[in-house]
Design brief:
Elements: E1 2-10, E2 13-14, E3 23-30, E4 33-40, H1 49-56, E5 61-64, H2 69-77, E6 81-84, H3 91-99
Parallel strand pairs: 1-5, 5-6
Antiparallel strand pairs: 1-2, 1-3, 3-4
Helix pairs in contact: 1-2
Length: 112
């Protein structure tokens, strides 16, 4: 089964704050294996634009350091899983950890 993950990035590494990223790594998996990674520049950041942008791409899981409550609410309304509080790594490693049930969530790294 195919699944799309999104990881907010700066310099192709996890960006601790969802709303401050320069691109989203969209990681496509099939049968628990990564088959493609593409970097997408998001639209201008306004409240709610990033969640709608990612929902429109068909993303089902977000892996992030932290994000604001409004973004979390929009993802929940779109049945998109949010995995927060992860440490800085490259998107491929984060998705591989998720697929092996080894990704550990932590405290929301966003302060609002």
């Amino acid at each position: 089964m195919k699944k799309l993950f999104a990881v907010p990035t700066i310099g192709e590494k996890l960006c601790a704050h969802f709303g401050h990223c320069e691109a989203f790594a969209i990681v496509e998996t099939d049968d628990q294996k990564i088959i493609n990674i593409e970097y997408h520049t998001p639209p201008v950041h306004q409240p709610g634009t990033y969640p709608r942008f990612l929902a429109g791409k068909g993303v089902s899981t977000i892996i992030s350091g932290g994000m604001g409550v409004k973004a979390q609410d929009i993802f929940a309304q779109n049945n998109i899983e949010v995995f927060m509080g992860v440490n800085s790594e490259n998107p491929e490693q984060l998705v591989e950890q998720y697929l092996r049930d080894q990704l550990v969530s932590g405290k929301n790294l966003c302060d609002h």
